[in-house]
Amino acid sequence: MVVLVALMVTGLLAGIGITAVGPGGVLATVGLFVFTSLSPAQVAGTAIVTHVATGILGSAAFVHSGQLKEPGTRRVAGVLAAVAVVGTPLGVLLNSWVSAKAFGIVLGGFALIVAVFVGLKGRERPVGLPLAGAIGAGVAVVAGLVGVGGPMLAVPLLVVAGMPVLGALAAAQAQSVVIASVGTVGYVLHGAVDWRLAAVVGIPELAGVLIGWRIAHALPTKTLKAALVAVLVGIAPYLALHG
């Protein structure tokens, strides 16, 4: 029961982070990695399944609030989604070659890298499609490998590249749908999805997506970013040593 509650809480926090500041989806992966005995592939597969629904709901929310109706944001979202079709399967393939210890190191390093990007602030300017493609491809590979939906790294990278936070959040949600869908197929074919735990994490995660979307539109993200940086930096050493 304690494990289930812990997974539900991490799912809720993950959903809030996904749409409030982008980084957040990794918390679902972290919860499964820390609180269960799933293999690295099962952790990634179970986590990425939850991001199909969160990506769809997040995209719908940002369409409703207008960000995904803006031409520039739609173009970036389209490029991110297109390159994810190729990048995500590559990440899934790489995951099958990673040991439990290496997976912990990758996840810990991933948390630190994201923390650095979240702490950076770029000047707002249009993001070129080649740059968007490069960002999208890299994010898709990492997402397929680690089991996150995309906004975890795409949002801070797009913001550093010059995209407004809300636009970056919106574009990343659209990419998330493709990453999670393609990744889910790959992990299902490998028999690496625990559907029961996906529901335990995923249902609270959906509630968190709506909460995070409201926060993104109602409050400045400075405090949220600082708190998330602190959490990521704090958990990274444990993740690197776990397993």
Concise description?
The protein is mainly α. The protein contains ten helices and no strands. The chain has one domain.
Global mean pLDDT = 88
Major sheet description: none
CA distance, first residue to last residue: 23 Å
The quaternary structure here is single chain
Question: Using DSSP, what is the number of strands?
Answer: 0
Low-pLDDT sequence parts: none
Note the beta-strand portion: under 5%
State the helicity in percent bands: over 70%
Helix run count: 10
Give Rg in angstroms: 16 Å
| Number of individual domains | 1
The 3D shape can be described as globular
The secondary-structure element order is HHHHHHHHHH
Structural class comes to mainly alpha
Topology:
Elements: H1 2-20, H2 26-35, H3 40-64, H4 71-95, H5 100-119, H6 129-146, H7 151-161, H8 165-189, H9 195-218, H10 222-241
Helix pairs in contact: 1-2, 1-9, 2-3, 3-6, 3-8, 3-9, 4-6, 4-8, 5-10, 6-7, 6-8, 7-8
Please explain how this structure is put together.
The structure is a single chain. The chain has 243 residues and is mainly alpha-helical. It has one domain. The chain is 81% helix and 0% strand. It contains ten helices and no strands. Helix 1 packs parallel to helix 9, helix 3 packs antiparallel against helix 8 and helix 4 runs parallel beside helix 6. It is globular, with a radius of gyration of 16 Å. It starts with a helix and ends with a helix.
